[in-house]
Amino acid sequence: MLKSDFTYELPPELIAQEPLAQRSASRMLVVDGQSGQWQDSWIRQLPEWLHPGDLLILNDTRVLPARLHAYKETGGAVELLLDRLLGEQDGWFLAKSSKALRPGMRLRLAHGDEAEVLEKEGMDVRLHLQQGSWLDILESEGSMPLPPYIHRAPEASDQERYQTIYADKPGAVAAPTAGLHFDEALLDALDARGVERRFVTLHVGAGTFLPVRSDHVQEHVMHAETLMVSQEAVDAIVATKARGGRVIAVGTTACRALETAGKDGVLRPYVGETRLFLYPGKKFQVIDALLTNFHLPESTLLMLVCAFAGTECMLAAYRHAVAARYRFFSYGDAMFITPADPEPV
């Protein structure tokens, strides 16, 4: 299986550079993986596509201002992008500099704080902060890590809009973008429809911005990301399935959290890391439907939705979305997808 099997032509002007004025004003392409058919809709109509007794699972991670500037002892500039925190004073970062960082090197941050390079793995470095906490430094010195396909500097409005309204647990370097469509009016409409919701946490890491470098899909290794699936979420999922309701993941991050917690066929609470890579041929153990945004060509997220609803179906749906001038990627429109296999096993 080649990564070139997961490509499509996308005019650059369809890549959304700004959010819409209203979160719930986006379009939504509804894709039936079993029939291979689709229908144009709107995110505000999501309650009409759901059934009373269905359960939405949302990711309550909070995006950190995760991009930092630092300097080597020689004065050379270093750009840091948080990958994941390991504690108050330790974390993995993607580092860009004119010359590679090495263990033992010290970096100076904007307000005089210092960090030491402890380890290096590819472009990742593990940094130990000499004093204070990374969370405090990121909040005071960092900038919002807008994706590289948004060709503008972060603005004050991104502090709110590149964040879900239910964001709670800090730790992500990218937003769980399917959740950006939800506002209070949409949540109220879902409540009125009898659709329940629960939360999981998956802190999106910097690896989400990195391309698949291997030509062969199966050779790709995912970056580790930390997650938490609670007993409360597990109980709600079990109860939903027992009454014949559907479990709907809001975003690929919620999907990967649930599928990690249920990867051996039994859903259990889970706290830890995941490198779960879902591509065609992989089976889904937990989710019955997926709400997600449109994803980059040849990305692991496009491979995930192709695994769920079928590669031919999804690429045809993407071609329709291009022709119909949908807005793509983080600040773009949504898809509601049901599986090619109606009974995930």
- Rg, rounded, reads 20 Å
Q: Considering the protein shown, what is the CATH homologous superfamily of the largest domain?
A: QueA-like
Strand order of the largest sheet: 2-1-17-16-14-3-12-13-15
Helix content: 10-25%
What's the β-strand tally?
17
Low-pLDDT runs of 5+ residues are none
Domain module count: 2
Structural class: alpha/beta
Mean pLDDT equals: 94
Known CATH architecture of the largest domain: 3-Layer(aba) Sandwich
- Shape label: globular
Strand content bin: 25-35%
**Given this structure, which CATH class of the largest domain is correct?**
Alpha Beta
Helix and strand run: EEHEEEEEEEEHHEHEEHEHEEHHE
CATH fold label of the largest domain = QueA-like
Count the DSSP helices.
8
Q: Biggest β-sheet: count, sense, barrel?
A: 9 strands, mixed
Distance between the termini: 22 Å
Short précis:
By secondary structure, the protein is an alpha/beta fold. It has 8 helices and 17 strands. Helix 7 (300-309) packs across helix 8 (311-323).
Topology:
Blueprint: E1 27-32, E2 37-42, H1 46-49, E3 55-59, E4 61-63, E5 67-72, E6 77-85, E7 90-97, E8 106-108, E9 114-121, E10 124-129, H2 134-141, H3 158-161, E11 169-172, H4 184-193, E12 196-202, E13 225-229, H5 231-242, E14 247-250, H6 252-261, E15 270-274, E16 289-293, H7 300-309, H8 311-323, E17 334-338
Parallel strand pairs: 1-17, 3-12, 3-14, 4-11, 14-16
Antiparallel strand pairs: 1-2, 5-6, 5-8, 6-7, 7-10, 8-9, 9-10, 12-13, 13-15, 16-17
Helix pairs in contact: 7-8
